[in-house]
Amino acid sequence: MIRAFDHTSFTVPSIDAAVAFWRDAMGFTVASDSPREGPFLGAVVGLPGARARIAHLHGHGQHLEFVQYLDPPGARALPAPNDRCAGHVAFVSDDIAADTARLIAAGATHQGAVTAVTGGPYAGASAVYLRDPNGVILELYQPAAKP
To answer: Is residue 86 over pLDDT 80?
Structure first.
C-alpha cells in the first residue's frame, strides 16, 4: 500500500536556471544537485542509456525535483496549460501584485494575468499563472480578503 507522498518532479532544459530561480526567488533550499547515469537510471525511466543531472529542493512544505536529461535530449516545446499531462505548482500569496512583479524581475514570464475570481467557491480571490525560466508553470493565489 502507498503510504506517503514524496515529491513533485519537472523535466527542465537547465538545472542551473531551475536552482537559481527556485532558490533565490521562491525561497527553496537545495538538498542535492548531482549527476545520474548508468543502467539503473535508464531502467527506472525507460530510456536506456539515459544520463541526467537531478536537483532536489525543499521549501514551503514541499519537495521539488528538477531533472535535466543530458542524454537522450528531449523535445523543447512547452506544454500549454490545457495540454495533456501539463501541470503546475500553486502558492498562496499575501500580495499577488508584488509577488508577481518580484518573480517577473527574477526571470519568470507571464502565462496569464493577475485576475479576480468572480464566481464559485473562491470568488473574491485573485490568481495568476506564470512560468519559471525553464517554462514550468506556477500559480500564485491570493485568497479573498476576510470581512
So the answer is: yes
| CA 14/CA 27 separation, integer angstroms | 18
Distances (CA, A) of 31 to 9, 26, 36, 46, 120: 14, 15, 15, 25, 39
Which numeric CATH code is attached to 88-142? 3.10.180.10
In this prediction, what percent of the chain has a pLDDT beyond 70?
100
pTM of the model: 0.92
CB neighbours (10 Å) of residue 25?
18
| Average pLDDT score over the chain | 95
C-alpha torsion sign, points 38, 43, 45, 46: positive
Q: Does domain 8-71 have CATH number 3.30.70.20?
A: no
DSSP state of 120: G
Q: Do domains 8-71 and 88-142 have the same CATH topology?
A: yes
**H or E element that contains 32:** strand 29-37
Q: What is the pLDDT of residue 141?
A: 96
Q: Where are the domains of the chain?
A: 8-71, 88-142
Q: Determine how many CB atoms are found less than 10 A away from the CB of residue 9.
A: 14
Residue 116 banded pLDDT, cuts 50, 70, 90: very high
